[in-house]
Amino acid sequence: MPKLGMEPIRREALVTAAIAEIGAAGSLDVTVSAISKRAGMSSALAHHYFGNKDQIFLAAMRHILAGFAVEVHSRLSLANTPRDRLKALVEASFARSCFDPEVISAWLNFYVKAHSSPDAMRLLRVYQRRLRSNLIHALRPISRKPEELADAIAALIDGLYIRAALGAPISRDPAATILAFTAPHLEDDQ
Q1: Were 43 and a residue from 15, 33, 67, 137 both cysteine, which residue would form a disulfide, CB within 3.0 to 4.6 Å?
Q2: Predicted pLDDT of residue 3
Q3: 3-class state of residue 73 by DSSP
Q4: What is the pLDDT of residue 188?
Q5: 83 — phi, psi (to 5°)?
Q6: Does Repressor count among this protein's keywords (predicted)?
Q7: CA atoms within 13 A on the CB side of 110
C-alpha cells in the first residue's frame, strides 16, 4: 500500500541526492542506484518517480534554478535603483545556496549535458534568456549598451562558475569582482 503524500518528499530526496552524487563524482557518471541509495530508497522507486537518470538530473537542475529564482526575487524586492537591481542579480548568482560546490558541479555538468540533450538545452536557454532579460532591464537606464554589458556580465558569471568547478582560486566575493568590472561602464542613475 503506497504511503499517501510521500511522493513529493521522495522526489525531493532524490533530487537532493542527485546533486550530492554529481558533486561528489564531479560528473554525471553516477548511477541511479547510487542516487537512490543516498536518498535512502530503492532504485526501482527512483525509476518509478523519474523514469531515468537524465530525468532525475533535469529535475535537479530545475530545483537549482528554482532556488536561484528565490534568491533573485528576495534581493530584487529590496532594490530601489537600477544599480541596486544589477547588484541584486549578480549577488544572487553567488548566493551561498547557488555557489555551493555541489551546485557548481551540477552547473558545469548541465552545460555539458545541454550539448547532447534537447531537454537540457531548452532548460538552459530559459535560464539564459531570463538572466539576460533581467540584466538588460537593470542596465537600460544606466548604460548606453545594455545588451552588450548584460552579455558580458552573464559571461563573467559563467566563467567564475567554470573556474570554481575546475578548482581555480576564486575571490572571496565573486559578485564584487563582477560589479567592480561593470562600474566603469555605467552612467549615473537618472
Answers
A1: 33
A2: 67
A3: helix
A4: 67
A5: -65, -40
A6: yes
A7: 33
Tell me the C-alpha to C-alpha distance, in Å, between residue 175 and each of 51, 148, 151, 161.
38, 19, 16, 11
Q: What is the pLDDT of residue 4?
A: 64
Element (H, E) at 71: helix 53-76
Q: Looking at residue 1, what is its pLDDT?
A: 40
Domain ranges of the chain: 58-185
58-185 homologous superfamily: Tetracycline Repressor, domain 2 (1.10.357.10)
DSSP per residue over 143-173, as a string?
-S-HHHHHHHHHHHHHHHHHHHHTT----S-
* Contacts (Cβ under 8 Å, ≥6 apart) of 38: 17, 20, 21
Under-70 pLDDT residues of the chain: 1-4, 188-190
pLDDT for 89 equals 96
- pLDDT, residue 171, reads 80
Task: Give me the torsion for CA of 139, 73, 88, 100, rounded to 10°.
Answer: -130
